[in-house]
Design a protein that fits this description.
mainly alpha, Rossmann fold, Catalytic domain of cyclic nucleotide phosphodiesterase 4b2b, three-stranded parallel β-sheet, two-stranded parallel ribbon, about 10% strand, elongated
């Protein structure tokens, strides 16, 4: 078969869709993905954005024989005919899927004289994966770690950036800012999420995932404790910048990551009162925070350390990512230094001092002790 087509809204494309596309590649020389532009569905991404995400996802797999065509105001089967595609491929997950797809297939053939359809059934681990399923994951703490398992990397990256963008616009109240202020804030969003900061390729843990997780922790903490909204904004400002500068290893003359991040915030001129958040950023230096007094220090430090109390899968991913960030250290050195740092934090947790904020202590302290002790044991082997 020369060409086969696969169609859908693909908002976002999932690993299930990718599986079907790969099956299509085994059946034809060329696969054409027909991307439906259906405004009634109110997609998260524009058709052009989805086309780019699909192309990047296929390129990531090395699939050079997949192209993407946006279908506007036409039936997919008719668009397929115009592209020289005689057959479409569809994934069937349930009996309801079959009944629906069979009706569409009959319409394609009998009414539109369009392309015929081949049906394939995805493996069990992808049987429940759909765009609507992925969308429903967004929100609770840890949603990003779960979503990552069900979508290709480019789709995940685009989704996380879109989520962070909404958080950023809310923090800086875009609806009530003038064009100049919005452009300035846009520039800083691009800088913070770009390759020089949290979006950097060498950022294996202190990256966009860390931003999403921390901002979710802040949101849930605020919903449960009802603090002053102005304090919540200060915590968010500090968290956005607290690891903006990262990776200054081994140069005693260089400012600490925390001090460099605080200076970056002060130079951003995003907020009118910047000193409060700057001092809070400095307090995230776990080796010097005892000397810094700030009314919100315990909250931000607890947010930063909340990763220690996550479930086992998330914690294991975190531990591997930390090792990658310190890949410049020989294994023996890393084991010794990481083990010592964890032992220090574990003792604090056992003394009830790791999470200075009571809400986070209740949520995470016991699990953090278990997680850290298991990692200490693994490092000692």
């Amino acid at each position: 078969m020369k060409k086969i087509g696969f169609s859908g809204t693909l908002d976002p494309i999932t690993n299930g869709h990718m599986w079907v596309i790969n099956e299509a590649r085994s059946l034809a020389d060329e696969v054409v993905v027909f991307l439906s532009e259906n405004p009634a569905k109110k997609p998260k991404f524009t058709a052009e954005e989805r086309k780019s995400i699909i192309a990047l996802s296929c390129a990531e797999q090395g699939w050079a024989n997949v192209s993407v065509v946006i279908v506007r105001g036409d039936y997919t089967a008719r668009a397929a005919k115009k592209q020289g595609v005689e057959c479409l491929i569809r994934g069937i997950r349930t009996t309801a899927d079959f009944d629906y797809e069979n009706l569409i297939q009959q319409t394609n053939v009998d009414v539109l004289q369009g392309a015929k359809t081949v049906f394939v059934m995805p493996p069990r681990d992808l049987g429940s994966v759909s765009s609507s399923f992925v969308k429903a994951l967004e929100g609770p703490i840890g949603w990003n770690w779960i979503m990552k398992k069900f979508v290709p990397g480019p789709a995940y990256h685009a989704w996380v950036l879109s989520w962070l963008r909404k958080e950023w616009e809310t923090l800086w109240d875009y609806a009530h800012r003038d064009a100049t202020a919005i452009a300035h804030a846009d520039d800083w969003f691009a800088r913070l999420t770009g390759p020089g900061c949290y979006g950097g390729a060498a950022r294996h843990y202190h990256n966009l995932d860390h931003l999403v997780h921390g901002l979710c922790e802040i949101r849930v903490w605020a919903a449960n404790t009802r603090p002053d909204p102005a304090d919540v904004d200060i915590i968010k400002q500090a968290f956005w910048f607290h690891d903006a500068e990262y990776g200054h290893h081994g140069d005693p003359a260089a400012p600490t990551n925390e001090e460099a991040s605080a200076q970056l915030w002060l130079g951003s001129h995003l907020g009118q009162e910047t000193g409060d958040a700057a001092e809070l950023i400095r307090a995230t230096d776990h080796f010097q925070e005892a000397a810094i007094t700030h009314r919100l220090k315990d909250v931000l430090l607890s947010v930063d350390l909340a990763i220690l109390g996550q479930d086992d899968e998330v914690y294991q991913n975190y531990a591997r990512a930390i090792r990658q960030e310190y890949s410049h250290l020989p294994d023996a050195t890393y084991r010794q230094q990481r083990g010592a740092a964890l032992a220090h934090l574990c003792r604090k947790a056992q003394q009830g001092l790791l999470f200075g904020n009571a809400y986070f202590a209740e949520q995470y302290n016991e699990r953090a002790i278990d997680n850290m002790q298991r990692e200490i044991d693994r490092l000692a082997v």
